[in-house]
Protein backbone atom coordinates (compact mmCIF):
# COMPACT_ATOMS: atom_id res chain seq x y z
CA UNK A 1 0.00 0.00 0.00
CA UNK A 2 1.42 3.25 -0.80
CA UNK A 3 1.08 6.49 -2.51
CA UNK A 4 3.67 7.70 -4.89
CA UNK A 5 4.93 10.72 -6.60
CA UNK A 6 6.27 8.20 -8.95
CA UNK A 7 4.55 4.86 -8.72
CA UNK A 8 5.46 3.08 -5.46
CA UNK A 9 4.21 -0.19 -4.02
CA UNK A 10 2.41 -0.68 -0.72
CA UNK A 11 2.06 -4.39 -0.59
CA UNK A 12 4.91 -5.22 -2.86
CA UNK A 13 3.36 -8.21 -4.48
CA UNK A 14 4.61 -8.77 -7.97
CA UNK A 15 4.97 -12.20 -9.48
CA UNK A 16 8.00 -11.19 -11.50
CA UNK A 17 10.64 -10.19 -8.99
CA UNK A 18 13.64 -12.48 -8.74
CA UNK A 19 13.56 -15.26 -6.19
CA UNK A 20 9.82 -14.80 -5.77
CA UNK A 21 8.86 -18.33 -4.81
CA UNK A 22 11.40 -18.64 -2.02
CA UNK A 23 10.46 -15.22 -0.71
CA UNK A 24 6.80 -16.06 -0.92
CA UNK A 25 7.30 -19.17 1.19
CA UNK A 26 9.29 -17.11 3.68
CA UNK A 27 6.54 -14.52 3.86
CA UNK A 28 3.87 -17.16 4.34
CA UNK A 29 5.91 -18.72 7.14
CA UNK A 30 6.38 -15.30 8.70
CA UNK A 31 2.65 -14.59 8.70
CA UNK A 32 2.00 -18.01 10.29
CA UNK A 33 4.53 -17.20 13.00
CA UNK A 34 2.54 -14.05 13.78
CA UNK A 35 -0.36 -16.23 14.81
CA UNK A 36 -2.40 -16.49 11.60
CA UNK A 37 -3.38 -19.58 9.75
CA UNK A 38 -3.83 -19.72 6.00
CA UNK A 39 -7.58 -20.26 5.88
CA UNK A 40 -10.15 -17.77 4.70
CA UNK A 41 -13.06 -16.44 6.69
CA UNK A 42 -16.61 -16.38 5.36
CA UNK A 43 -17.14 -14.18 2.30
CA UNK A 44 -18.05 -10.58 3.02
CA UNK A 45 -21.73 -9.73 2.63
CA UNK A 46 -21.49 -7.50 -0.44
CA UNK A 47 -24.64 -8.51 -2.34
CA UNK A 48 -26.51 -5.37 -1.29
CA UNK A 49 -23.55 -3.04 -1.80
CA UNK A 50 -23.74 -0.69 -4.79
CA UNK A 51 -20.76 -0.65 -7.11
CA UNK A 52 -18.91 2.62 -7.41
CA UNK A 53 -19.18 4.33 -10.78
CA UNK A 54 -15.81 6.01 -10.26
CA UNK A 55 -13.65 3.66 -12.27
CA UNK A 56 -11.77 3.21 -15.53
CA UNK A 57 -11.03 0.12 -17.59
CA UNK A 58 -7.68 0.40 -19.29
CA UNK A 59 -6.08 -1.78 -21.90
CA UNK A 60 -2.46 -2.67 -21.30
CA UNK A 61 0.29 -5.14 -21.93
CA UNK A 62 2.70 -7.41 -20.11
CA UNK A 63 5.78 -6.11 -18.46
CA UNK A 64 7.72 -5.76 -15.26
CA UNK A 65 6.74 -3.04 -12.85
CA UNK A 66 7.17 -1.55 -9.43
CA UNK A 67 5.42 -2.60 -6.20
CA UNK A 68 2.13 -1.33 -4.82
CA UNK A 69 2.05 1.88 -2.91
CA UNK A 70 1.80 5.60 -2.91
CA UNK A 71 3.17 8.04 -5.45
CA UNK A 72 4.32 11.38 -4.13
CA UNK A 73 4.14 14.96 -5.33
CA UNK A 74 0.69 14.54 -6.60
CA UNK A 75 1.75 11.04 -7.40
CA UNK A 76 0.36 7.83 -5.95
CA UNK A 77 0.30 5.23 -3.12
CA UNK A 78 -0.57 1.55 -3.04
CA UNK A 79 -0.78 -1.48 -0.75
CA UNK A 80 0.74 -4.41 -2.60
CA UNK A 81 3.14 -2.25 -4.57
CA UNK A 82 5.11 -1.18 -1.55
CA UNK A 83 6.05 -4.74 -0.83
CA UNK A 84 7.20 -5.34 -4.37
CA UNK A 85 9.18 -2.11 -4.42
CA UNK A 86 10.87 -2.96 -1.18
CA UNK A 87 11.90 -6.39 -2.43
CA UNK A 88 13.08 -5.05 -5.77
CA UNK A 89 15.08 -2.36 -4.04
CA UNK A 90 16.74 -4.93 -1.80
CA UNK A 91 17.54 -7.32 -4.61
CA UNK A 92 18.76 -4.66 -7.02
CA UNK A 93 20.42 -2.35 -4.52
CA UNK A 94 18.07 0.52 -5.34
CA UNK A 95 16.89 3.17 -2.92
CA UNK A 96 13.09 2.63 -2.71
CA UNK A 97 12.56 6.38 -2.51
CA UNK A 98 14.18 6.79 -5.91
CA UNK A 99 11.21 4.88 -7.31
CA UNK A 100 8.83 7.48 -5.97
CA UNK A 101 9.07 10.30 -8.45
CA UNK A 102 7.13 13.52 -8.54
CA UNK A 103 4.27 13.47 -10.98
CA UNK A 104 3.42 16.41 -13.14
CA UNK A 105 0.03 15.86 -14.64
CA UNK A 106 -3.07 13.68 -14.73
CA UNK A 107 -3.73 10.71 -16.91
CA UNK A 108 -6.45 12.26 -19.01
CA UNK A 109 -8.27 8.93 -19.24
CA UNK A 110 -12.07 9.09 -19.33
CA UNK A 111 -14.02 7.94 -16.31
CA UNK A 112 -16.10 4.80 -16.59
CA UNK A 113 -15.60 1.86 -18.96
CA UNK A 114 -13.11 2.65 -21.70
CA UNK A 115 -11.04 0.50 -24.05
CA UNK A 116 -11.59 -3.08 -25.11
CA UNK A 117 -9.89 -5.43 -22.70
CA UNK A 118 -7.66 -8.39 -23.66
CA UNK A 119 -9.11 -11.87 -23.83
CA UNK A 120 -12.10 -10.96 -25.95
CA UNK A 121 -13.89 -8.93 -23.27
CA UNK A 122 -15.98 -6.04 -24.49
CA UNK A 123 -15.39 -2.51 -23.26
CA UNK A 124 -16.98 -2.06 -19.85
CA UNK A 125 -17.40 -5.77 -19.13
CA UNK A 126 -16.28 -6.53 -15.57
CA UNK A 127 -14.85 -9.67 -14.00
CA UNK A 128 -16.23 -10.85 -10.62
CA UNK A 129 -13.16 -9.51 -8.81
CA UNK A 130 -13.52 -6.13 -10.51
CA UNK A 131 -17.17 -6.03 -9.48
CA UNK A 132 -16.22 -6.91 -5.90
CA UNK A 133 -13.52 -4.22 -5.92
CA UNK A 134 -16.06 -1.64 -7.04
CA UNK A 135 -18.49 -2.68 -4.32
CA UNK A 136 -15.72 -2.18 -1.77
CA UNK A 137 -14.83 1.18 -3.32
CA UNK A 138 -18.50 2.16 -3.23
CA UNK A 139 -18.62 1.28 0.45
CA UNK A 140 -15.58 3.48 1.17
CA UNK A 141 -17.30 6.35 -0.65
CA UNK A 142 -20.40 6.06 1.50
CA UNK A 143 -18.46 5.77 4.75
CA UNK A 144 -16.06 8.63 4.08
CA UNK A 145 -18.84 10.86 2.75
CA UNK A 146 -20.61 10.51 6.12
CA UNK A 147 -17.40 11.12 8.07
CA UNK A 148 -16.56 14.24 6.05
CA UNK A 149 -20.15 15.51 6.29
CA UNK A 150 -20.10 15.13 10.09
CA UNK A 151 -17.29 17.69 10.13
CA UNK A 152 -18.99 19.99 7.65
CA UNK A 153 -16.91 18.81 4.70
CA UNK A 154 -17.55 17.12 1.38
CA UNK A 155 -15.79 13.95 0.25
CA UNK A 156 -14.40 13.99 -3.28
CA UNK A 157 -13.96 10.32 -4.23
CA UNK A 158 -10.96 8.76 -5.92
CA UNK A 159 -11.13 6.86 -9.22
CA UNK A 160 -10.12 3.20 -9.45
CA UNK A 161 -8.20 2.46 -12.65
CA UNK A 162 -8.13 -1.23 -13.57
CA UNK A 163 -5.31 -2.21 -15.89
CA UNK A 164 -3.65 -5.43 -17.07
CA UNK A 165 0.14 -5.50 -17.17
CA UNK A 166 1.07 -1.84 -17.48
CA UNK A 167 -0.34 1.62 -18.13
CA UNK A 168 0.50 5.28 -17.62
CA UNK A 169 -0.48 7.19 -14.50
CA UNK A 170 -0.16 10.81 -13.50
CA UNK A 171 2.80 9.65 -11.44
CA UNK A 172 4.57 7.79 -14.24
CA UNK A 173 4.54 4.22 -15.49
CA UNK A 174 2.32 1.74 -13.65
CA UNK A 175 3.23 -1.94 -13.87
CA UNK A 176 1.53 -4.89 -12.28
CA UNK A 177 4.73 -6.29 -10.77
CA UNK A 178 4.81 -3.24 -8.53
CA UNK A 179 1.37 -3.82 -7.05
CA UNK A 180 -1.52 -1.42 -6.38
CA UNK A 181 -0.78 2.25 -5.69
CA UNK A 182 -2.41 5.64 -5.30
CA UNK A 183 -1.29 8.57 -7.44
CA UNK A 184 -1.94 11.95 -5.79
CA UNK A 185 -1.39 13.78 -9.07
CA UNK A 186 -4.43 12.36 -10.84
CA UNK A 187 -6.17 11.17 -7.64
CA UNK A 188 -6.45 7.60 -8.93
CA UNK A 189 -5.85 4.16 -7.48
CA UNK A 190 -4.13 1.85 -9.97
CA UNK A 191 -4.89 -1.84 -9.65
CA UNK A 192 -4.10 -4.95 -11.65
CA UNK A 193 -6.40 -7.45 -9.93
CA UNK A 194 -3.91 -10.28 -10.53
CA UNK A 195 -2.18 -8.84 -7.46
CA UNK A 196 -4.84 -10.42 -5.28
CA UNK A 197 -3.68 -13.86 -6.45
CA UNK A 198 -0.16 -12.90 -5.36
CA UNK A 199 -1.47 -11.66 -2.03
CA UNK A 200 -3.08 -15.04 -1.38
CA UNK A 201 -0.45 -17.41 -2.79
CA UNK A 202 2.85 -15.57 -2.29
CA UNK A 203 2.07 -13.65 0.85
CA UNK A 204 -0.27 -16.05 2.60
CA UNK A 205 -3.12 -13.53 2.88
CA UNK A 206 -6.21 -14.90 1.08
CA UNK A 207 -9.78 -13.72 1.45
CA UNK A 208 -12.00 -10.92 0.24
CA UNK A 209 -11.40 -8.77 3.32
CA UNK A 210 -7.67 -8.94 2.69
CA UNK A 211 -8.48 -7.53 -0.76
CA UNK A 212 -10.75 -4.93 0.81
CA UNK A 213 -7.90 -3.91 3.11
CA UNK A 214 -5.69 -3.22 0.08
CA UNK A 215 -8.30 -1.00 -1.55
CA UNK A 216 -9.22 0.73 1.72
CA UNK A 217 -5.53 1.41 2.40
CA UNK A 218 -5.18 3.10 -0.99
CA UNK A 219 -8.34 5.09 -0.30
CA UNK A 220 -6.64 6.07 2.96
CA UNK A 221 -3.87 7.67 0.90
CA UNK A 222 -6.56 9.56 -1.01
CA UNK A 223 -7.92 10.87 2.30
CA UNK A 224 -4.40 12.01 3.17
CA UNK A 225 -4.18 13.75 -0.19
CA UNK A 226 -7.48 15.57 0.40
CA UNK A 227 -6.29 16.59 3.88
CA UNK A 228 -3.04 17.97 2.48
CA UNK A 229 -0.92 15.49 4.43
CA UNK A 230 0.81 14.01 1.37
CA UNK A 231 1.92 17.37 0.04
CA UNK A 232 3.26 18.43 3.44
CA UNK A 233 5.17 15.18 3.86
CA UNK A 234 6.65 15.42 0.37
CA UNK A 235 7.93 18.93 1.09
CA UNK A 236 9.48 17.79 4.36
CA UNK A 237 11.13 14.74 2.78
CA UNK A 238 12.95 16.96 0.30
CA UNK A 239 14.87 18.47 3.24
CA UNK A 240 15.55 15.25 5.15
CA UNK A 241 18.17 12.52 5.05
CA UNK A 242 17.21 9.17 3.55
CA UNK A 243 16.70 7.59 6.97
CA UNK A 244 14.56 10.48 8.20
CA UNK A 245 12.57 10.46 4.98
CA UNK A 246 11.93 6.72 5.34
CA UNK A 247 10.74 7.20 8.91
CA UNK A 248 8.30 9.88 7.79
CA UNK A 249 7.05 7.63 4.99
CA UNK A 250 6.32 4.90 7.55
CA UNK A 251 4.02 7.33 9.39
CA UNK A 252 2.17 7.99 6.14
CA UNK A 253 1.65 4.28 5.49
CA UNK A 254 0.59 3.47 9.04
CA UNK A 255 -1.97 6.25 8.96
CA UNK A 256 -3.40 4.80 5.74
CA UNK A 257 -3.64 1.43 7.52
CA UNK A 258 -5.53 3.11 10.37
CA UNK A 259 -7.89 4.81 7.90
CA UNK A 260 -8.57 1.40 6.35
CA UNK A 261 -9.60 0.21 9.81
CA UNK A 262 -11.83 3.26 10.29
CA UNK A 263 -13.65 2.39 7.07
CA UNK A 264 -14.16 -1.23 8.15
CA UNK A 265 -15.44 -0.17 11.56
CA UNK A 266 -18.07 2.05 9.94
CA UNK A 267 -19.41 -0.50 7.48
CA UNK A 268 -22.78 -1.93 8.39
CA UNK A 269 -23.53 -5.59 8.00
CA UNK A 270 -20.91 -6.57 5.43
CA UNK A 271 -18.26 -8.17 7.66
CA UNK A 272 -18.37 -11.87 8.49
CA UNK A 273 -16.56 -13.90 11.18
CA UNK A 274 -12.91 -14.18 10.21
CA UNK A 275 -12.84 -11.00 8.09
CA UNK A 276 -10.89 -8.99 10.65
CA UNK A 277 -8.34 -11.80 10.92
CA UNK A 278 -7.93 -11.72 7.13
CA UNK A 279 -7.14 -8.02 7.27
CA UNK A 280 -4.68 -8.40 10.14
CA UNK A 281 -3.01 -11.27 8.32
CA UNK A 282 -2.61 -9.13 5.21
CA UNK A 283 -1.18 -6.27 7.28
CA UNK A 284 1.38 -8.62 8.83
CA UNK A 285 2.28 -10.14 5.47
CA UNK A 286 3.29 -6.74 4.09
CA UNK A 287 5.26 -5.54 7.09
CA UNK A 288 8.75 -4.34 6.21
CA UNK A 289 10.38 -6.76 8.64
CA UNK A 290 8.41 -9.68 7.17
CA UNK A 291 9.45 -8.73 3.65
CA UNK A 292 13.08 -8.07 4.53
CA UNK A 293 13.43 -11.34 6.40
CA UNK A 294 11.89 -13.25 3.50
CA UNK A 295 14.03 -11.55 0.84
CA UNK A 296 17.40 -11.13 2.54
CA UNK A 297 17.25 -13.07 5.79
CA UNK A 298 17.88 -10.05 8.03
CA UNK A 299 15.83 -7.10 9.22
CA UNK A 300 17.13 -3.56 8.67
CA UNK A 301 14.79 -1.13 10.49
CA UNK A 302 16.52 1.88 8.93
CA UNK A 303 15.23 0.69 5.57
CA UNK A 304 11.59 0.49 6.63
CA UNK A 305 9.22 2.52 4.44
CA UNK A 306 5.86 1.03 5.46
CA UNK A 307 6.28 -0.16 9.02
CA UNK A 308 6.81 -3.46 10.78
CA UNK A 309 4.22 -6.23 10.75
CA UNK A 310 3.36 -5.43 14.37
CA UNK A 311 2.97 -1.71 13.68
CA UNK A 312 0.83 -2.27 10.61
CA UNK A 313 -1.47 -4.55 12.59
CA UNK A 314 -1.50 -2.11 15.51
CA UNK A 315 -2.66 0.86 13.45
CA UNK A 316 -5.16 -1.14 11.40
CA UNK A 317 -6.64 -2.39 14.67
CA UNK A 318 -6.72 1.15 16.13
CA UNK A 319 -8.96 2.21 13.30
CA UNK A 320 -11.04 -0.94 13.60
CA UNK A 321 -11.53 -0.56 17.35
CA UNK A 322 -12.46 3.12 17.29
CA UNK A 323 -14.02 3.88 13.91
CA UNK A 324 -12.74 7.42 14.47
CA UNK A 325 -10.13 8.93 12.11
CA UNK A 326 -8.93 11.18 14.91
CA UNK A 327 -7.14 8.22 16.51
CA UNK A 328 -5.03 7.84 13.37
CA UNK A 329 -2.49 10.53 14.25
CA UNK A 330 0.68 8.57 13.50
CA UNK A 331 2.57 11.87 13.31
CA UNK A 332 2.01 12.62 16.99
CA UNK A 333 0.50 16.04 16.37
CA UNK A 334 -1.93 15.67 19.24
Automatic annotation (TrEMBL):
- Swiss-Prot/TrEMBL keywords: Hydrolase, Membrane, Metalloprotease, Protease, Transmembrane, Transmembrane helix
Report one GO cellular component. Answer: membrane
Q: How does it sit in the membrane?
A: Single-pass membrane protein
Cell compartments where the protein resides: Membrane
Q: What is this protein called?
A: Zinc metalloprotease
**One GO term of the biological process aspect:** proteolysis
Query: Among its keywords, does the record have Transport?
Result: no
The record ties this protein, via InterPro entries, to: Uncharacterised_pept_Zn_put (IPR007343)
Q: For this UniProt entry, which segments traverse the membrane? A: 64-91
Record flagged with keyword Amino-acid biosynthesis? no
Q: Where is this region: Disordered?
A: 17-56
Main location, first listed in the record? membrane
Q: Name one GO molecular function term.
A: metallopeptidase activity
User: Known Pfam families for this protein?
Assistant: Zn_peptidase
